[in-house]
Amino acid sequence: MNAQEKTMDVTLRVWRQKGPDQPGRFVSYAAKGVTPEMSFFEALDTINEGLVAKGEDAIAFDHDCREGICGTCCLTIEGQPHGPDQAATGCQLHMRAYKDGDAITIEPFRARAFPVIKDLVVDRSALDRVMASGGFVSVNTGSAGEANAILVPKDKAEAAMDAAACIGCGACVAACPNASAMLFVSAKVSQFALLPQGGPERDRRVLAMQRQMDLEGFGNCSNEGECEAVCPKEVKLANIARLNREYIRAMFWSHEVHPKVDLEGQEE
Amino acid sequence: MSLKLDAGIPDGPVDKKWDKHRFALKLVNPANKRKFDVIVVGTGLAGASAAASLAELGYNVKVFCIQDSPRRAHSIAAQGGINAAKNYPNDGDSVWRLFYDTVKGGDYRAREANVYRLAQVSNAIIDQCVAQGVPFARDYGGALDNRSFGGAQVSRTFFARGQTGQQLLLGAYSALMRQAGKKQVQVFPRREMVELVVVDGAARGIVTRDLTTGRLESHAAHAVLLCTGGYGNAFYLSTNANSCNVGAAWLAYKKGAGFANPCFTQIHPTCIPQSGEHQAKLTLMSESLRNDGRVWVPKKKGDNRAPGQIPEAERDYYLERKYPTFGNLVPRDVASRAAKQMIDEGRGVGRTGLAVYLDFADAIKRQGQAKITEKYGNLFDMYHHLTAEDPYRAPMRIYPAVHYTMGGLWVDYNLMTTIPGLFCLGEANFSDHGANRLGASALMQGLADGYFIIPYTLGGFFASSKLAKVDTSHPAFKEAEQSAAGRTQRLLSIKGKRTPVSFHKELGTLMWNNCGMGRSETGLKEALAKIPAIREEFWKNVVVTGSGAEFNQTLERAARVADYLEFSELLVRDALERRESCGGHFREESQTPEGEAKRDDANFSHATVWEHAGEGKPPIENREKLEFKDVVPSQRSYA
User: Fold this and answer.
1) Would you call B97 a catalytic residue per the annotation?
2) Does A128 sit within 8 Å of B189, measured CB to CB?
3) B321: closest CA among B592, B638, B582?
4) What are the backbone dihedrals phi and psi of residue A32, each rounded to the nearest 5 degrees, phi first?
């Protein structure tokens, strides 16, 4: 490595919380000798290495692929889920976005449906339960017909892919003032609404997913558009419009029985 | 040799074996399937597809993953595509050709029967994924689109932009969650397997650590499926996700499962080069980029002009020069070694000199930027995010990195390891790729194993075995829990001075330097001497903070590094014993005058299967002889 490389010192104000039912607080850590090429997470790694070497607990944070595709990381950086870069996850953020002397505040994704496990780690299993309620095409292994027997217009396939690109990170929920999961749900509903394969379960799916979303404690959409702004995969707000259309269609025209949900979120 | 290595390959011509075997396998009565419990560890393509398919059949499935959701397994990061022998482009593909290419691409170190079966079921995988709503790329007529991919002269790769792994995994995950909703599968996220429980010689359960609370939990079953991926992180820097580890496979090895060909590791030619000491992992740039990108270095040593200032005549498009037939599309091992050669000659580029160019200028001129964006847009964006350089204007800088591991637990034709009832699927097993995997074949194998092979072979196992009733009250579970707890305690009690990551880096650097792209007897022997020393220091001087009864990522990492410190020794030993070059394993002593890998079929046409002989004892070498009846081995040539 070359020696003239510019380095900087920054301060990270990090949310520390021992466990789910314990109070949390911000603790400041100095990150010295940070290079612009470093990823934001590598700067966190460096702090953690220092903490562990001193015998102190490392800052817990979820991360895995570090290339923006697995959806594991869930940091709110300076108030913004995934940080300042457009169309990127926290793990894709690099220190070149900062300058010497900056203080950067890091919190977990905040939402009622995402309880904190420790420090910056949250429980997003609510999203899996929403998927289990209807985010699929019911086709058993072995029962599929010849692939090219299903023709899909190219523009429809592309639009379905745009929606399917969702990585399930939950940034949309964290950014929404109502902690709504509408963008997440709409991405899956849209993918299948755009494809012929999704046709047979169209009504069932939207009713079931919408219901599960409510049961999990996610809020509703009030057209703030914050979700679209932070989505690392640029899933569009138009999907929520499609979700609403699908929902209304299913409510009024389908034969599916819509389960009633009372205000406490319990089934009647 | 003491392991019984009967692969159980059915008789008859290669193209009839699987049909014959499927008929020979006994069936489990539909009403009896609910009496069988199956544990699936790992939720990548192999694990998710197996768990979903087995649950659909009516088995009770418990599935475990270390991530917070099954959707995040590292299959999600696969970019380029999935192969199948559909022959939609009418360009001469067939099941036989896919079979042939895979055996040849694996440098004749894979089992013919397994590879043929893989090619045979490849088409059904595409059908299944399309039915699930996987949004593959399509033509204007609405039919599926294909592209050619590293090492293939036909266009047999199906793709969903540069996110094929993601889309296939989300398909398998949605099938899995559908079964979870029906209570046919119980999903256990944030769980790490910390023991395999063997009763009366058969795998009957596992112990897991709940990564949120640290609690140890016992789970009993009639069979255990390990779908736990590869061990590339033994090298510290690889394209694998941070949590990828060899733990489950290593536990199985220590309980008697044979470990085959650990030295067969794949180094992918097109990754983003390391930028500094702090680097935590490397990022792959899909090989599909080589369809349109041209690889070059300056002709002159140490030429540090900006790429745009180096005139055409002073560039060496070395892949096109050395391999005129395949050009930039030579298989991964060949492309990686060629890059290393250029860098060793002092013609590497960029700040560190550890990179070569991958240039799209010609493709953009010929096809227009819009077309390139359509094909590779997300990859270009990813490169831009990581490097702050715009690949539409300047060539990408790429460098080889550890990416995939062909070696793994030895399995028979039924995907069962040498421990009855313990099966191994996907990258974690050794079966289909020989010494080198072709691009877009990992996704194919993971899904083949999970969707179309294990549903048959597991039934055959159940129907023909007498399994006594075993539940978690069996003393073997208590013992296993105690052993796992003891190990955690041991790690926590050392309270030394060095972090687990520092040991991982030290080990990885040694592995990369001495057992990476080029391997020599001297280097391997040196590594064999140094690894035990690092391991010894680890167990004396590692510091693991926090406790075992909480969410503790330092402890998780320490346990995985401890496994790598043992496993790496086996990998190096295997590399030392294999005194030939083949596929991704390049022994410097065994090369042609042109510097290409030279196989030694007379002495090494076998899978080396290592057997655990007890702590502190050298492992025992076993061999499964490979026979080639349908694809005659020849020296691979891509010139």
Assistant:
1) no
2) yes
3) B638
4) -105, 150
Could you give the ipTM of this predicted complex?
0.95
Q: Is it the case that residue A266 has pLDDT exceeding 80?
A: no
**Cα–Cα nearest to A219, from A181, A189, A260, A265:** A181
Interface contact A42-B280, CB threshold 8 A: yes
Integer Cα distance of A149 and B127 in angstroms: 9
* Location of each CATH 3.10.20.30 domain in chain A: 8-118
pLDDT at B352 over 90: no
Phi and psi at B383, nearest 5°, equal -60, -45
Q: Is B163 on the interface with A (CB under 8 A)?
A: yes
Report the C-alpha gap between B331 and B392 in whole angstroms.
25
pLDDT at A3: 41
CATH 3.90.700.10 residue ranges in chain B? 268-402
Query: What is the CB-side half-sphere exposure of residue A81 using CA atoms within 13 A?
Result: 26
Smallest CA–CA distance from B384 into chain A, residue: A92
Report angle CA B488, B557, B70 to the nearest 5 degrees: 100
**Chain A residues whose beta carbon lies within 8 Å of the beta carbon of residue B141:** 151
Let me know if domain A8-118 sits in CATH 3.40.109.10.
no
- Kindly name the residue from B147, B332, B437, B599 that is annotated as catalytic: B332
What's this model's pTM, rounded to 2 decimal places?
0.96
Query: What pLDDT does A264 receive?
Result: 46
Contact A152 B550 (CB under 8 A): no
Of residues B200, B291, B207, the one with CA closest to residue B247: B207
Chain A, 206 to 225: residues with Cβ < 8 Å from chain B are none
Is residue B639 within 8 Å of residue B324, measured between CB atoms? yes
Asked if B61 and B47 touch (Cβ cutoff 8 Å), the reply is no
Of the candidates B550, B217, B281, B288, the one whose C-alpha atom is nearest the C-alpha of residue A72 is: B281
Strand order in the sheet with A103-108: A24-34, A8-17, A103-108, A75-77, A80-81
Give the span between the Cα atoms of B487 and B102, in whole angstroms: 41
> Range(s) for CATH 1.20.58.100 in chain B?
486-598
Residue type, B484: A
Question: In the predicted model, is pLDDT for residue A4 greater than 80?
Answer: no
Q: What fold characterizes domain B268-402?
A: Flavocytochrome C3; Chain A, domain 1 (3.90.700)
Report pLDDT digits (tens) over A142-183.
999 999 999 999 999 999 999 999 999 999 999 999 999 999
Q: Quick one: CATH architecture of B486-598? A: Up-down Bundle (1.20)
Would the CB atoms of B167 and A164 count as touching at under 8 Å? yes
Q: Which residues of chain A make contact with B280, given a CB cutoff of 8 A? A: 39, 41-42, 45, 66
**Which helix (H) or strand (E) covers residue A31, if one does?**
strand A24-34
Is the CB of B46 inside 8 Å of chain A's CB atoms?
no
Taking the C-alpha atoms of residue B57 and residue B451, their distance in angstroms, rounded to an integer, is 11
Instruction: For B257-304, write each residue's pLDDT tens digit.
Output: 999 999 999 999 999 999 888 898 999 998 889 989 999 999 999 999
Q: Which two tokens stand for residue B321?
A: 């020069």
Residue contact B68–A132, C-beta within 8 A: no
Over residues B381-398, the mean pLDDT reads: 92
Q: Identify the pLDDT of residue A262.
A: 44
CATH of range A124-253; options 1.10.860.10, 1.10.1060.10, 3.30.1330.60, 3.40.50.150 = 1.10.1060.10
Q: Is B177's CB within 8 Å of A136's CB? A: yes
Residue A152 near chain B (CB below 8 Å): yes
Q: Over the stretch A17-65, which tens digit does the pLDDT of each residue have? A: 999 999 999 999 999 999 999 999 999 999 999 999 999 999 999 999 9
Q: What is the pLDDT of residue A261?
A: 46
